[in-house]
């Protein structure tokens, strides 16, 4: 399926030098932990035993290769844009791929990586063949669950007696000395020495809030990596214990009399109300005079109390992020409650911090200051990325988040190199990569370079960190270097071997590798990875079963794909906790898709590109190479041609049978989804005018698209994106606002976040509705293509008299006739991969189209009409 074209993506071969050996002397690996993790590693980790896995895998090498790749891409973009005209290529059918490719491709899942002068080649890096997987699948699931119980990897905090928590009376300098183990533990955590970090945190986790928060941060990261409800529940439980411990220390430190707790409660409540009505943290605080502070004329809150407040707030912040990622109404409400509690504590500490002025270092320890900067900065970034639809549900604040303040505080935290510096790097990288993945068309140019700079800063302290290598893989994808992205994920898997988060890193990176394979149209490799992840029960078993079936269908293995799809409804039904899971929305989309296939006896699968549809929903086309985009567009055209063939067949029945049992064909949902995919591919290729005709068809027939309701709002998103790149940005904003008006469809909040990011960016660069009078948005008026029936986008049938516009004062029957003719015209234009190269085929196809047209209009002798026209 991979065809060679003139476009060659930059490929960077990373040289891993063996002269810088890792210092494993400081890593005290537990025997129990090692054996337990080894038993849990699936067939995904079957690496060649002859390879040297102890070589340091420098993050800096990945970043250097990434920067080289970006520089080469910029040079290519400066060259003259090559013509959009493509050569004739046969339309590849999804059925044409031989089934024998499954076994051959499974042995080369990852690109070979060359290591220095040794020339070692990594083979079968991620997967062995299906038969081996099948042999162990039935035995590993139960053993993993049993091994997890009582494992050394499990992090728990025992019940804390609030009365036993002692007040913290250390001075700032004494506190910094006491917190040195925290700094060492954080360094171990981001250097892949997870068990060493865990032991350091556990030493005082039952009595010190910051040690408890260290454990909470570990399970927080693990929950993000595993994406499992069990890991999320465990993380929330540990963070709640941390919250209780910090609250108890605050209470025991401030309780001076019987009414102390009550007074503190009301003071905290009043602060919460006051700060929620403002514009964020209090900014009108007048710093106290240094002499007043030195002579104790102005009282200050003790450092121990401020430190506990920061820990309490950060625990709430991490819980809020976990609830937010569940993408459920209940999750959004709980997210709002935790954000409110977090910001209440942060505001109290911020008020003291500002009141101390330039002398804050004398009254607050540096790790607490680091916590203030990280926490308030993270809250601002999280809230600034949420759309109004989610903010109304969260209902956390009445003030507007300040994204620039968030960036400034997180960068200050990084410069301080204290306890939260590493978490600040993670927050910034997560923000850059997640938001750019959601809206790459608008944000890629803005955030890719800052992400690289953040990685450069992180690699100075953590050259082999699996966590930062994961983000290096995500950043490489944003730069359209999928080869480097896959290599980074492989290195992340390698560096986490025999450690606390081994399985989680393996699963997380394996999914990303599989998604990269989909973007390179390597369906066999992707199917093998997704099948194994499904057996490992990572993230969502139904989703990986669906992706496995979708990839098998792209390989032409229809029977195997149907078998994979057929199991999905039963698996979803047996999952009792699916409604509270973060994957619930995706699973419901998949379930509806499979039920539609089942209702037609899987006869309509030729008209649906499941894999391409999933890739569209997750913005894959913006990161793909030109050759793969052209292949996918040809596949989409092939599916459109199958719809045309089915319509011809079903209408031919109506020429010979009176009142046939077969209903008139209605493939609006299938055609709408395919045209949306094609328009998105054209936009990703920079051929924006050519996408107009397809998007117009979707908008014209939006009332007839009833099953896949998500198609219409996503089409408006693409319409806005097309307008944006055709220098009609005001109208583009209008289309995005129309998309926001739609509700109750699949991936609603995902699209809302994408549109919010685009609208926010438009506001930042000064695009305002006041600059231009608003225009009607039902059609692309004043565009290069005014409508479907007035296309100037290389449509082969635009000059045919049968498709001319009729008068505006037509009656209802004539309007229906015009609609049907427009539909047929768009179909004829969309069902061929390269219409501009097929002028000789137009007359023959037009005869067929006119027959179908007249059949729709109820003509008794359509053949005679065609002959008369000739």
Strand order of the largest sheet: 1-2
Largest sheet: 2 strands, antiparallel
In angstroms, what separates the terminal alpha carbons?
Answer: 41 Å
**Could you report the average pLDDT, rounded to the nearest whole number?**
75
* Quaternary organisation: single chain
User: If helices are DSSP runs of H or I spanning 4 or more residues, what is the number of helices?
Assistant: 37
User: Quick one: how many beta strands?
Assistant: 2
Outline: elongated
Low-confidence stretches: 1-57, 80-150, 256-266, 275-284, 773-870
Region (Disordered): 1-54, 70-105, 791-844
Biased composition (Low complexity): 26-49, 85-105
Pfam families: Iml2-TPR_39 (PF10300)
InterPro entries: IML2/TPR_39, TPR-like_helical_dom_sf
Structure description:
The protein is mostly helical and 870 residues long. The chain is 62% helix and 0% strand. The protein has 37 helices and two strands. A two-stranded antiparallel sheet has the order 1-2. Strand 1 and strand 2 form a beta hairpin. The N terminus and C terminus are likely disordered. It is an enzyme of class 1 (oxidoreductase). InterPro entries: IML2/TPR_39, TPR-like_helical_dom_sf.
Q: What's the short version?
A:
Residues 812-823 have a biased composition (Basic and acidic residues). Helix content is 62%, strand content 0%. With 870 residues, it is mainly α.
Helix-strand blueprint:
Layout: H1 31-40, H2 59-78, H3 101-105, E1 114-115, E2 120-121, H4 130-148, H5 172-178, H6 180-189, H7 194-202, H8 209-226, H9 229-254, H10 260-277, H11 290-294, H12 303-324, H13 329-355, H14 360-363, H15 366-384, H16 388-394, H17 403-416, H18 421-438, H19 440-461, H20 466-478, H21 482-495, H22 502-519, H23 523-535, H24 541-554, H25 558-566, H26 568-574, H27 584-599, H28 610-617, H29 626-656, H30 668-684, H31 688-700, H32 711-725, H33 729-740, H34 748-764, H35 812-830, H36 842-857, H37 862-869
Antiparallel strand pairs: 1-2
């Amino acid at each position: 399926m991979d065809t060679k074209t003139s476009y060659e993506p930059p490929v960077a071969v990373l040289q891993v030098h063996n002269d810088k050996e890792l210092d494993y002397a400081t890593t005290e690996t537990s025997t129990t932990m090692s054996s337990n993790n080894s038993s849990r590693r699936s067939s995904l980790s079957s690496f060649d035993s002859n390879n040297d896995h102890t070589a340091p895998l420098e993050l800096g090498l990945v970043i250097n290769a990434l920067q080289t790749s970006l520089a080469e891409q910029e040079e290519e973009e400066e060259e003259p844009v090559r013509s959009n005209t493509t050569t004739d290529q046969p339309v590849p059918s999804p059925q044409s791929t031989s089934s024998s490719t499954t076994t051959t491709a499974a042995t080369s899942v990852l690109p070979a990586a060359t290591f220095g002068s040794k020339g070692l080649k990594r083979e079968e890096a991620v997967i062995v063949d299906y038969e081996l997987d099948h042999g162990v699948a039935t035995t590993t699931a139960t053993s993993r669950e049993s091994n997890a119980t009582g494992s050394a990897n499990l992090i728990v905090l025992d019940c804390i007696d609030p009365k036993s928590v002692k007040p913290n009376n250390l001075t700032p300098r004494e506190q910094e000395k006491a917190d040195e183990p925290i700094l060492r533990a954080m360094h171990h955590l981001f250097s892949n020495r997870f068990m060493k970090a865990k032991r350091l945190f556990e030493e005082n986790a039952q009595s010190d809030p910051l040690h408890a928060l260290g454990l909470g941060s570990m399970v927080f990261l693990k929950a993000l990596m595993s994406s499992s409800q069990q890991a999320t529940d465990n993380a929330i439980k540990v963070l709640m214990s941390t919250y209780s411990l910090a609250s108890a220390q605050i209470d025991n430190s401030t309780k001076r009399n019987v009414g102390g707790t009550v007074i503190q409660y009301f003071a905290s409540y009043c602060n919460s109300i006051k700060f929620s009505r403002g514009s964020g943290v209090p900014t009108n605080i007048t710093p106290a005079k240094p002499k007043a502070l030195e002579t104790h004329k102005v009282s200050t809150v003790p450092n121990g109390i401020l430190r506990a407040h920061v820990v309490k707030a950060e625990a709430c912040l991490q819980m809020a992020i976990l609830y937010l990622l569940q993408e459920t109404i209940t999750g959004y409400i709980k997210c709002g409650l935790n954000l409110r509690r977090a910001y209440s504590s942060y505001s109290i500490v911020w008020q003291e911090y500002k009141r101390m002025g330039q002398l804050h270092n004398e009254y607050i320890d540096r790790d607490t200051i680091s916590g203030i900067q990280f926490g308030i900065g993270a809250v601002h970034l999280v809230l600034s990325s949420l759309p109004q639809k989610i903010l109304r549900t969260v209902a956390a604040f009445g003030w507007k988040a300040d994204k620039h303040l968030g960036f400034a505080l997180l960068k200050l935290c990084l410069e301080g190199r204290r306890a939260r510096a590493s978490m600040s790097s993670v927050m910034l990288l997560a923000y850059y990569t997640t938001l750019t993945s959601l809206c790459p068309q608008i944000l890629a140019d803005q955030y890719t370079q800052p992400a690289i700079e953040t990685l450069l800063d992180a690699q100075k302290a953590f050259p082999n960190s699996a966590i930062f290598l994961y983000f290096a893989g995500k950043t490489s994808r944003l730069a359209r270097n999928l080869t480097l992205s896959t290599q980074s994920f492989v290195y992340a898997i390698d560096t986490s071997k025999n450690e606390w988060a081994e399985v989680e890193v393996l699963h997380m990176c394996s999914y990303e590798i599989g998604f990269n394979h989909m973007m390179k149209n390597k369906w066999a490799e992707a199917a093998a990875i997704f099948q194994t992840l499904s057996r490992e029960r990572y993230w969502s078993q139904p989703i990986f079963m669906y992706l496995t079936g979708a990839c098998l269908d792209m390989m032409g293995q229809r029977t195997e794909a149907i078998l994979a799809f057929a199991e999905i409804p039963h698996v979803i039904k047996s999952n009792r906790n699916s409604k509270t899971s973060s994957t619930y929305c995706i699973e419901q989309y998949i379930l509806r898709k499979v039920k539609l296939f089942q209702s037609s006896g899987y006869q309509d699968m030729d008209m649906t590109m499941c894999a391409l549809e999933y890739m569209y929903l997750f913005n894959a086309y913006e990161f793909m190479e030109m050759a793969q985009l052209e292949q996918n567009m040809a596949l989409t055209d092939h599916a459109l041609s199958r719809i045309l063939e089915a319509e011809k067949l079903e209408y031919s029945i109506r020429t010979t049978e009176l009142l046939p049992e077969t209903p008139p064909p209605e493939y609006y949902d299938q055609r709408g989804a395919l045209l949306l995919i094609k328009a998105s591919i054209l936009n990703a290729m920079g051929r924006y005018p050519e996408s107009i005709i397809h998007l117009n068809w979707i908008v014209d027939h939006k009332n007839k698209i009833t099953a896949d309701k998500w198609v219409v709002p996503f089409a408006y998103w693409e319409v806005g994106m097309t307008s944006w790149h055709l220098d009609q940005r005001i109208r583009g904003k209008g289309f995005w606002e129309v998309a926001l008006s739609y509700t109750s469809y699949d991936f609603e909040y995902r699209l809302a976040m994408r549109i919010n990011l685009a609208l926010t960016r438009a506001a930042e660069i000064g695009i305002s509705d006041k600059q231009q009078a608003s225009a009607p948005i039902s059609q692309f008026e004043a565009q290069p293509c005014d409508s479907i029936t007035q296309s100037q986008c290389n449509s082969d049938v635009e000059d045919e008299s049968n498709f001319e516009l009729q008068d505006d004062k037509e009656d209802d029957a004539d309007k229906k006739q015009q609609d049907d003719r427009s539909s047929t015209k768009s179909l004829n234009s969309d069902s061929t991969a390269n219409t501009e190269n097929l002028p000789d085929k137009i007359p023959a196809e037009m005869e067929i189209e006119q027959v179908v047209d007249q059949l729709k209009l109820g003509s008794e002798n359509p053949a005679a009409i065609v002959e008369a026209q000739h």
